[in-house]
Task: structure prediction
Amino acid sequence: MTEKVKLNNGVEMPWVGLGVFRMDNDDDTQIVIEKALAMGYRHIDTAAYYDNEEAVGKAIQSSGIPRKEVFITTKVWNEDQRQGTVRQAFEDSLRKLGTDYVDLYLIHWPVPGKFKETWKIFEEIYNTGRAKAIGVSNFKKHHLEELKDVSTITPAVNQIELHPYLVQQEDLDYCNENGIRVEAWSPFAANKFNLFNEKIIIDIAEKHEKSPAQIILRWDHQRGVVVIPKSSNEKRLAENIDIFDFKLSDEEIAQISALNRNKRVGSDPDHFDF
Ligand SMILES: NC(=O)c1ccc[n+]([C@@H]2O[C@H](COP(=O)([O-])OP(=O)(O)OC[C@H]3O[C@@H](n4cnc5c(N)ncnc54)[C@H](OP(=O)(O)O)[C@@H]3O)[C@@H](O)[C@H]2O)c1
Result:
Protein backbone atom coordinates (compact mmCIF):
# COMPACT_ATOMS: atom_id res chain seq x y z
CA MET A 1 0.00 0.00 0.00
CA THR A 2 1.33 3.44 -0.75
CA GLU A 3 1.46 6.01 2.02
CA LYS A 4 -0.80 9.06 1.89
CA VAL A 5 -0.51 12.81 2.23
CA LYS A 6 -3.24 15.08 3.58
CA LEU A 7 -4.28 17.84 1.16
CA ASN A 8 -5.22 21.34 2.34
CA ASN A 9 -8.89 20.35 2.78
CA GLY A 10 -8.14 17.16 4.75
CA VAL A 11 -8.59 14.75 1.83
CA GLU A 12 -5.92 12.04 1.79
CA MET A 13 -4.05 11.32 -1.43
CA PRO A 14 -1.61 8.44 -1.99
CA TRP A 15 1.95 9.72 -2.56
CA VAL A 16 2.34 7.40 -5.55
CA GLY A 17 -0.25 6.99 -8.30
CA LEU A 18 -0.36 5.41 -11.72
CA GLY A 19 -0.36 7.85 -14.64
CA VAL A 20 -2.21 6.54 -17.69
CA PHE A 21 -1.41 9.08 -20.41
CA ARG A 22 -0.92 7.46 -23.84
CA MET A 23 -2.63 4.26 -22.74
CA ASP A 24 -5.50 3.22 -25.02
CA ASN A 25 -9.11 2.96 -23.95
CA ASP A 26 -9.04 -0.83 -24.25
CA ASP A 27 -8.80 -4.17 -22.49
CA ASP A 28 -4.99 -4.01 -22.30
CA THR A 29 -5.15 -0.79 -20.31
CA GLN A 30 -7.86 -2.24 -18.11
CA ILE A 31 -5.60 -5.24 -17.40
CA VAL A 32 -2.59 -3.04 -16.54
CA ILE A 33 -4.67 -0.98 -14.11
CA GLU A 34 -6.17 -4.12 -12.56
CA LYS A 35 -2.63 -5.44 -12.01
CA ALA A 36 -1.56 -2.14 -10.49
CA LEU A 37 -4.55 -2.17 -8.12
CA ALA A 38 -3.82 -5.79 -7.16
CA MET A 39 -0.25 -4.87 -6.22
CA GLY A 40 -1.31 -1.96 -4.02
CA TYR A 41 -1.84 1.10 -6.22
CA ARG A 42 -4.76 3.16 -4.94
CA HIS A 43 -4.38 6.27 -7.07
CA ILE A 44 -4.98 6.61 -10.82
CA ASP A 45 -4.26 9.78 -12.79
CA THR A 46 -6.29 10.17 -15.97
CA ALA A 47 -7.80 13.06 -17.95
CA ALA A 48 -10.64 13.62 -20.38
CA TYR A 49 -7.92 14.29 -22.98
CA TYR A 50 -6.35 10.84 -22.49
CA ASP A 51 -9.57 9.31 -23.76
CA ASN A 52 -9.29 6.26 -21.50
CA GLU A 53 -11.60 7.09 -18.60
CA GLU A 54 -13.84 4.10 -19.44
CA ALA A 55 -10.93 1.67 -19.13
CA VAL A 56 -9.97 3.26 -15.80
CA GLY A 57 -13.54 2.95 -14.52
CA LYS A 58 -13.89 -0.66 -15.67
CA ALA A 59 -10.60 -1.65 -14.03
CA ILE A 60 -11.62 -0.16 -10.70
CA GLN A 61 -15.05 -1.80 -10.84
CA SER A 62 -13.68 -5.21 -11.77
CA SER A 63 -10.91 -5.03 -9.15
CA GLY A 64 -13.43 -5.53 -6.35
CA ILE A 65 -11.73 -2.78 -4.36
CA PRO A 66 -14.31 -0.45 -2.81
CA ARG A 67 -14.57 2.81 -4.75
CA LYS A 68 -13.78 4.86 -1.66
CA GLU A 69 -10.37 3.20 -1.36
CA VAL A 70 -9.21 4.35 -4.79
CA PHE A 71 -8.17 7.94 -5.45
CA ILE A 72 -9.20 9.01 -8.97
CA THR A 73 -7.92 12.18 -10.61
CA THR A 74 -9.26 13.46 -13.90
CA LYS A 75 -8.89 16.78 -15.71
CA VAL A 76 -10.93 19.16 -17.82
CA TRP A 77 -9.56 19.70 -21.33
CA ASN A 78 -8.70 23.08 -22.84
CA GLU A 79 -11.39 22.98 -25.52
CA ASP A 80 -14.10 22.72 -22.86
CA GLN A 81 -12.69 25.79 -21.16
CA ARG A 82 -12.73 27.69 -24.46
CA GLN A 83 -16.24 26.54 -25.39
CA GLY A 84 -17.77 27.08 -21.95
CA THR A 85 -18.67 23.38 -21.59
CA VAL A 86 -16.85 22.65 -18.33
CA ARG A 87 -19.96 21.47 -16.43
CA GLN A 88 -20.86 19.07 -19.24
CA ALA A 89 -17.26 17.85 -19.45
CA PHE A 90 -17.35 17.00 -15.76
CA GLU A 91 -20.58 15.02 -16.19
CA ASP A 92 -19.05 13.17 -19.16
CA SER A 93 -15.96 12.24 -17.15
CA LEU A 94 -18.07 10.89 -14.28
CA ARG A 95 -20.18 8.86 -16.69
CA LYS A 96 -17.16 7.40 -18.46
CA LEU A 97 -15.45 6.59 -15.17
CA GLY A 98 -18.67 4.97 -13.96
CA THR A 99 -18.59 6.82 -10.66
CA ASP A 100 -20.60 9.55 -8.98
CA TYR A 101 -17.59 11.52 -7.74
CA VAL A 102 -13.89 12.04 -8.41
CA ASP A 103 -11.30 12.50 -5.72
CA LEU A 104 -9.49 15.28 -7.57
CA TYR A 105 -10.58 17.38 -10.52
CA LEU A 106 -7.89 19.45 -12.23
CA ILE A 107 -7.79 22.29 -14.75
CA HIS A 108 -5.44 20.60 -17.24
CA TRP A 109 -3.81 23.79 -18.59
CA PRO A 110 -4.19 27.50 -17.71
CA VAL A 111 -6.07 28.54 -20.86
CA PRO A 112 -5.48 32.30 -21.11
CA GLY A 113 -8.57 34.39 -20.46
CA LYS A 114 -10.53 31.30 -19.40
CA PHE A 115 -9.00 29.58 -16.40
CA LYS A 116 -10.43 31.99 -13.81
CA GLU A 117 -13.95 31.39 -15.12
CA THR A 118 -13.25 27.64 -15.09
CA TRP A 119 -12.12 27.86 -11.47
CA LYS A 120 -15.45 29.43 -10.42
CA ILE A 121 -17.23 26.43 -11.97
CA PHE A 122 -14.78 24.10 -10.21
CA GLU A 123 -15.74 25.70 -6.90
CA GLU A 124 -19.43 25.07 -7.70
CA ILE A 125 -18.65 21.42 -8.51
CA TYR A 126 -16.61 21.09 -5.31
CA ASN A 127 -19.49 22.50 -3.28
CA THR A 128 -21.79 19.76 -4.61
CA GLY A 129 -19.39 17.17 -3.11
CA ARG A 130 -18.85 15.43 -6.45
CA ALA A 131 -15.17 16.39 -6.57
CA LYS A 132 -13.61 15.76 -3.17
CA ALA A 133 -10.77 18.13 -4.02
CA ILE A 134 -10.10 20.57 -6.86
CA GLY A 135 -6.80 21.74 -8.24
CA VAL A 136 -4.84 22.88 -11.23
CA SER A 137 -2.15 21.61 -13.57
CA ASN A 138 0.62 23.39 -15.43
CA PHE A 139 0.07 26.57 -13.44
CA LYS A 140 3.08 28.80 -12.85
CA LYS A 141 3.35 31.13 -9.91
CA HIS A 142 1.82 34.02 -11.88
CA HIS A 143 -1.21 31.91 -12.87
CA LEU A 144 -1.75 30.97 -9.23
CA GLU A 145 -1.44 34.61 -8.21
CA GLU A 146 -4.00 35.59 -10.86
CA LEU A 147 -6.36 32.87 -9.66
CA LYS A 148 -6.47 34.59 -6.26
CA ASP A 149 -8.53 37.40 -7.93
CA VAL A 150 -11.55 35.07 -8.11
CA SER A 151 -10.96 32.09 -5.86
CA THR A 152 -12.53 31.42 -2.49
CA ILE A 153 -10.94 27.95 -2.40
CA THR A 154 -7.16 27.42 -2.68
CA PRO A 155 -6.25 24.70 -5.20
CA ALA A 156 -5.40 21.50 -3.32
CA VAL A 157 -2.87 20.42 -5.94
CA ASN A 158 -0.75 21.81 -8.77
CA GLN A 159 0.32 19.01 -11.12
CA ILE A 160 3.40 20.15 -13.07
CA GLU A 161 6.21 18.70 -15.12
CA LEU A 162 8.96 17.92 -12.61
CA HIS A 163 12.01 15.64 -12.77
CA PRO A 164 15.76 15.89 -12.14
CA TYR A 165 16.27 18.05 -15.26
CA LEU A 166 13.40 20.36 -14.23
CA VAL A 167 13.45 20.54 -10.45
CA GLN A 168 11.01 23.48 -10.22
CA GLN A 169 12.37 24.71 -6.87
CA GLU A 170 10.82 28.17 -7.10
CA ASP A 171 7.31 26.91 -7.93
CA LEU A 172 7.62 24.16 -5.32
CA ASP A 173 8.52 26.73 -2.63
CA TYR A 174 5.66 28.99 -3.71
CA CYS A 175 3.14 26.12 -3.62
CA ASN A 176 4.40 24.96 -0.21
CA GLU A 177 4.03 28.50 1.19
CA ASN A 178 0.48 28.62 -0.15
CA GLY A 179 -0.71 25.18 1.01
CA ILE A 180 -0.83 23.74 -2.51
CA ARG A 181 0.53 20.19 -2.91
CA VAL A 182 2.81 19.73 -5.91
CA GLU A 183 2.42 16.64 -8.01
CA ALA A 184 5.07 15.66 -10.59
CA TRP A 185 3.99 14.69 -14.07
CA SER A 186 6.52 12.83 -16.23
CA PRO A 187 8.66 12.12 -13.14
CA PHE A 188 11.03 10.18 -15.45
CA ALA A 189 10.82 12.87 -18.15
CA ALA A 190 8.75 10.30 -20.06
CA ASN A 191 11.99 8.32 -20.52
CA LYS A 192 13.17 10.82 -23.14
CA PHE A 193 16.24 12.29 -21.43
CA ASN A 194 18.08 9.16 -20.34
CA LEU A 195 17.78 10.11 -16.67
CA PHE A 196 18.24 6.48 -15.69
CA ASN A 197 21.80 6.66 -17.08
CA GLU A 198 22.86 9.71 -15.07
CA LYS A 199 25.97 8.61 -13.17
CA ILE A 200 24.98 10.25 -9.90
CA ILE A 201 21.56 8.55 -9.97
CA ILE A 202 23.16 5.17 -10.74
CA ASP A 203 25.71 5.61 -7.92
CA ILE A 204 23.01 6.50 -5.40
CA ALA A 205 20.88 3.59 -6.63
CA GLU A 206 23.74 1.12 -6.14
CA LYS A 207 24.39 2.43 -2.65
CA HIS A 208 20.76 1.92 -1.59
CA GLU A 209 20.30 -1.29 -3.63
CA LYS A 210 17.40 0.33 -5.47
CA SER A 211 16.80 1.11 -9.15
CA PRO A 212 17.44 4.56 -10.68
CA ALA A 213 13.66 4.94 -11.09
CA GLN A 214 13.13 4.34 -7.37
CA ILE A 215 15.83 6.89 -6.52
CA ILE A 216 14.07 9.53 -8.63
CA LEU A 217 10.68 8.81 -7.05
CA ARG A 218 12.18 8.84 -3.55
CA TRP A 219 13.84 12.20 -4.33
CA ASP A 220 10.36 13.53 -5.21
CA HIS A 221 8.83 12.03 -2.10
CA GLN A 222 11.39 13.56 0.25
CA ARG A 223 10.83 16.93 -1.42
CA GLY A 224 7.12 16.59 -0.59
CA VAL A 225 6.08 15.90 -4.17
CA VAL A 226 3.36 13.39 -5.15
CA VAL A 227 4.29 11.23 -8.18
CA ILE A 228 2.30 9.54 -10.94
CA PRO A 229 4.78 7.46 -12.95
CA LYS A 230 3.35 5.63 -15.94
CA SER A 231 4.25 2.00 -16.60
CA SER A 232 2.55 -0.81 -18.47
CA ASN A 233 5.08 -3.33 -17.24
CA GLU A 234 4.39 -5.46 -14.18
CA LYS A 235 7.95 -5.42 -12.82
CA ARG A 236 8.31 -1.66 -13.24
CA LEU A 237 4.86 -1.01 -11.75
CA ALA A 238 5.94 -2.93 -8.65
CA GLU A 239 9.24 -1.05 -8.51
CA ASN A 240 7.55 2.34 -8.69
CA ILE A 241 5.47 1.92 -5.54
CA ASP A 242 8.27 0.31 -3.55
CA ILE A 243 9.95 3.52 -2.37
CA PHE A 244 9.01 3.68 1.30
CA ASP A 245 11.67 1.47 2.89
CA PHE A 246 14.77 3.62 2.41
CA LYS A 247 15.84 7.23 2.82
CA LEU A 248 18.11 9.51 0.83
CA SER A 249 20.50 11.79 2.69
CA ASP A 250 20.21 15.57 2.33
CA GLU A 251 23.41 15.44 0.32
CA GLU A 252 21.97 12.87 -2.10
CA ILE A 253 18.82 14.97 -2.53
CA ALA A 254 21.02 17.99 -3.30
CA GLN A 255 23.15 15.99 -5.76
CA ILE A 256 20.06 14.93 -7.71
CA SER A 257 18.62 18.46 -7.62
CA ALA A 258 21.94 19.74 -9.01
CA LEU A 259 21.18 17.89 -12.27
CA ASN A 260 18.64 20.63 -13.04
CA ARG A 261 18.80 22.04 -16.58
CA ASN A 262 15.36 23.68 -16.69
CA LYS A 263 14.68 21.30 -19.56
CA ARG A 264 11.11 20.31 -20.44
CA VAL A 265 9.66 17.32 -22.29
CA GLY A 266 6.29 19.04 -22.53
CA SER A 267 5.13 22.55 -23.39
CA ASP A 268 5.92 25.62 -21.37
CA PRO A 269 2.64 26.68 -19.71
CA ASP A 270 3.17 30.21 -21.03
CA HIS A 271 3.43 28.97 -24.61
CA PHE A 272 1.12 26.06 -25.37
CA ASP A 273 -1.00 25.98 -28.50
CA PHE A 274 -3.46 23.17 -27.85
N1 LIG B 1 -0.96 17.35 -16.40
C1 LIG B 1 -0.31 17.19 -17.53
O1 LIG B 1 -0.27 18.08 -18.39
C2 LIG B 1 0.42 15.93 -17.78
C3 LIG B 1 1.30 15.80 -18.89
C4 LIG B 1 1.98 14.60 -19.07
C5 LIG B 1 1.78 13.54 -18.19
N2 LIG B 1 0.90 13.67 -17.15
C6 LIG B 1 0.66 12.55 -16.19
O2 LIG B 1 1.90 12.07 -15.71
C7 LIG B 1 1.97 10.67 -15.93
C8 LIG B 1 3.40 10.20 -16.07
O3 LIG B 1 4.08 10.88 -17.09
P1 LIG B 1 4.52 10.19 -18.48
O4 LIG B 1 3.58 9.10 -18.78
O5 LIG B 1 4.63 11.30 -19.47
O6 LIG B 1 6.00 9.68 -18.24
P2 LIG B 1 6.90 9.08 -17.03
O7 LIG B 1 6.05 8.50 -15.98
O8 LIG B 1 7.90 10.13 -16.69
O9 LIG B 1 7.69 7.95 -17.82
C9 LIG B 1 7.04 6.84 -18.37
C10 LIG B 1 8.10 6.06 -19.14
O10 LIG B 1 9.05 5.50 -18.23
C11 LIG B 1 9.04 4.08 -18.33
N3 LIG B 1 9.16 3.55 -16.96
C12 LIG B 1 8.18 3.52 -16.01
N4 LIG B 1 8.66 3.00 -14.87
C13 LIG B 1 9.95 2.68 -15.10
C14 LIG B 1 10.96 2.08 -14.30
N5 LIG B 1 10.73 1.72 -13.05
N6 LIG B 1 12.18 1.86 -14.88
C15 LIG B 1 12.42 2.19 -16.16
N7 LIG B 1 11.49 2.79 -16.96
C16 LIG B 1 10.26 3.02 -16.43
C17 LIG B 1 7.74 3.71 -19.00
O11 LIG B 1 7.86 2.54 -19.76
P3 LIG B 1 6.99 1.20 -19.45
O12 LIG B 1 5.55 1.59 -19.54
O13 LIG B 1 7.42 0.28 -20.54
O14 LIG B 1 7.40 0.74 -18.08
C18 LIG B 1 7.51 4.91 -19.92
O15 LIG B 1 8.29 4.80 -21.10
C19 LIG B 1 1.11 10.49 -17.20
O16 LIG B 1 0.78 9.15 -17.44
C20 LIG B 1 -0.05 11.38 -16.86
O17 LIG B 1 -0.93 10.74 -15.96
C21 LIG B 1 0.23 14.84 -16.94
About this structure: The first strand starts at residue 4 and ends at 6. The pocket of NAP is lined by residues 19-21, 45, 108, 137-138, 159, 185-191, 196, 211, 213, 228-233, 236, 239-240, 266 (CB under 6 Å). DSSP finds eleven helices and ten strands in the chain. The beta strands are 4-6, 12-14, 18-19, 43-45, 71-76, 104-107, 134-137, 157-161, 181-185, 226-227.
